[in-house]
Amino acid sequence: MTTEQLIAEIKKKKSFLCIGLDVDLNKIPQYLLKEDDPIFAFNKAIIDATHHLCVAYKPNTAFYEAYGIKGWQALEKTIKYLNKNHPEIFTIADAKRGDIGNTSTMYAKAFFEDLGFDSVTVAPYMGKDSVEPFLTFEDKHTILLALTSNQGAFDFQTKTVDGIELYKQVLKTSKSWQNSENLMYVVGATKAEYLADIRQIIPNSFLLVPGVGAQGGNLQEVCKYGMNKNIGLLINSSRGIIYASNDNNFAKAAANKALELQQQMAELI
Ligand SMILES: O=c1ccn([C@@H]2O[C@H](COP(=O)(O)O)[C@@H](O)[C@H]2O)c(=O)[nH]1
After folding, report:
1. How far apart (Å, rounded) are the C-alpha atoms in residues 180 and 135?
2. Is pTM, for the whole model, over 0.80?
3. Domains along the sequence of the chain with CATH
4. Which of 16, 11, 49 is nearest to 257 (CA)?
5. What confidence tens digit (pLDDT) does each residue in 233-250 have?
6. How far is the CA of 16 from the centre of ligand 1 (A)?
7. Which residues form the catalytic set?
């Protein structure tokens, strides 16, 4: 998907909501465990109930890898279902990859070509040659971790190196990489006070912002400092939406939570 198509979808739906599909078999309604593929059955119900309210879905691959081959098959079925039935929706494999160049190329092929995701999250720690292989894929997006939502972000990301905070160095340096127009960045909703500085460095890039909902990030704060002329934000909520209830009405409860966020977004656009 191109960035222009993503922007058009945001404007059409008046939503920049990304729903995280982080499926934990201990948290889903227990009757689904009787299905052949409970993870896919859960995802399908959530997608069917919420697709008109969001512009992106983000399965975190950890929640699939944890269930071995069955988990990976459920991930594959989920992305194929999305691409077939909702090609207008932006898909994010939250996999946080990145390695030496030839290995990164294989990661990129796995997520972009084999599975068919629009984007993948990548860690910047190994530098330019670990990220550039992802950037060579046309109309695919690499979402680089910049300033993450967790407490550990303060261990390294905000430390000063050569007179500049490391997360700012990641933003500045990555702009010089080949095909950097295919970059987006992760900034945690819990770090909203950093967004004005971040927008000075990358005014036009899209930001994936996790941390609204279960982690306590504030949607209005994020929008105040992080929104740009094209909105430029994908706000993710995972547990806060998909586990709104774990009874027979879980999909409806998820849709109600998604609607609450979408309505708040519509007022901010
Ligand atoms: O900085 C980051 C980067 C990624 N995540 C991921 O986003 C979701 C958040 O889930 P919630 O249930 O809405 O808290 C999850 O997959 C994280 O691994 C993040 O939280 N922060």
Report:
1. 7
2. yes
3. 3-264 (3.20.20.70)
4. 49
5. 999 999 999 999 999 999
6. 16
7. 96
